Each structure stands twice: as C-alpha cells, then as structure tokens.
C-alpha cells in the first residue's frame, strides 16, 4: 500500500468527490514566500480546486503561536484543512490532493502508466530546507510543554543547517549538488519532444517542484551560475515557459505584493512615515503627469 494511503487510513480520512464548489471547504494555512507552501499553492491552482489561503506570518513567528501549534504541533506551514480534517506537510498534502480529494481533478502524479515517466516524476520531487533561530525555538520549547519534544528537535536541526550554510565548503557542496540535479534536468529536457514538460507532455508535480526551485534560485541571483547565458539553454527556455503558466503567476508573489509585504512588516512608526512618503510620491507622480 502507498505510504500515504496508510497514513490516511490511520486517520480515517475520507475521499471527497462531490462537494459543493460554491462553498469553500478547503483552507490552506500557508506563507506566500515559503518554498513548501508555494508547491502546494501551485498544485491547488493546477488542479482548479476552490480554496481559501490563510496566511501565517512566519517572519513574525506566528507559526509558534498557541492557536497554530494546535493545528500543527511542528509549527510549520503548509497545512491543509478540508472540512474537519487537518493535513500537515507538503508531500502529504500533495498526495492527498492526488489520491483522495476529487480524484477526477487533473492529475499531477499519476499522469501515465509509463514506468520510466513515473520514475522521473518521483526522482524530481526536489526537496529543500530552511533556517531559523534555534535559540528562539529552545525558549518556545520551555514555554510550550505540549510541543517541547518537537521544538527541541527542530532547534537541533536548525543549528546543524546553520553550521552547514555558514561553512563555505559545505555551502559549495550544496551548490554542487544543485548543479548535479540541474544537469540531469537538462539531459531529461533534451530527451523530450518539442512542447513537452520535464517528464512528458503533461505538466506534473515534478514541474511544480522544478518551477519553485528555479524561482528560488533566481531570487537568490544564482541564474548565471546555473542556467543563464547559454549555460543550460533548455532549462533557461523551460523557466521562461513555466513563468507564463497561470498557476505560477497565481503562486509567486508579484512586485506590488512584495512592496505591500515590506510595508506591512515594518514597525508601526515606520509604517506611518513610509505611508506619508508613499502618499507623497503618488501625489508627486500625479502632479508631474498633469504638468507633462
Ligand atoms: N516537511 C515540511 C516542511 C515545512 C517547512 O519547513 N515549512 C517552513 C516554511 S518553508 C516553515 O514553516 N518554517 C517555519 C519554522 O520551521 O519555524 C513540508 O514539506 O511541508
């Protein structure tokens, strides 16, 4: 039995096939900048599922507030809520959406019977990590006896990740590993027919993972290292195509959204000052347009 099927059987998760689409009964606790949330958001858009995102501000530690720890004791987004069922972890959510929630919606994993294509899709379910403050997690562990074990475990993990990322050799090893994966991706793209996506003619979960990874690398300014200027021409073309996809545009925050988030993440007194400046700039543009 598929491992996720075992998980859902254990928690008696029911298959949802005929729910009323006008009434939203699917909620995603997420953060628009989180790698894992983005994967799930893009899958929901690809599948055309009607859902409501509930943003958890992980930059302000909202994932460790008691209301959220009750939903996910690991203090992580994304978490999917369907009716009264709560599903944490992006991989579990993606499997749930594929196998249990409206199985008639466009598949992202089970797109074919071709074993090689399925093998490639699974191979490119790329994973990534994140870092945070282990000191803060240890403090929270003391304040939240119910979640102490998991918070202490996360603090250890964060320390190990920080050690790796602050060591130049270790950091280079990670970049080399990404290089290796992207070389395999370039080879796979070479073997595809014109107009195909990464593994076949259908846009799959492997494409979602790759799209989100490429976007993250681009945001880090690493496109020159990995694909631009003829380094990996097929990957470069692929990234241009995937950015045109509606689900990608809906998932990745736009420039106005970035500006709004920067504005909202400032302390109140700065927001007041920034507001005044913004109003001033808008007024100035308006005046200049009138004059010119
Ligand atoms: N294995 C989890 C990882 C989720 C995860 O690490 N989420 C990050 C955001 S990308 C998070 O919530 N970090 C907050 C924290 O750990 O404090 C998944 O695949 O969903």
In short:
The protein has helices at about 5-10, 35-45, 65-70, 90-100, 115-125, 135-145, 150-165, 170-190, 205-220, 225, 235-245, 245-250, 255-265, 270-290; strands at about 25-30, 50-55, 80, 85-90. It is built from 14 helices and 4 strands.
Give a structural overview.
- This protein is mainly alpha-helical and 292 residues long.
- Among the domains are: 1-106, 3-Layer(aba) Sandwich (Glutaredoxin), CATH 3.40.30; 255-291.
- 58% of the residues lie in helices and 6% in strands.
- It contains 14 helices and four strands.
- The protein has helices spanning 3-10, 35-47, 66-71, 90-99, 115-123, 134-143, 148-166, 168-191, 205-219, 223-226, 233-243, 246-251, 255-264, 268-291, and strands at residues 26-30, 52-55, 79-82, 85-88.
- Strands 2-1-3-4 form a four-stranded mixed beta sheet, with helices on one face.
- The chain is globular, with a radius of gyration of 21 Å.
- Bound molecules: glutathione.
- Residues 34-36, 58, 63, 75-78, 89-91, 130, 132 line the site of glutathione.
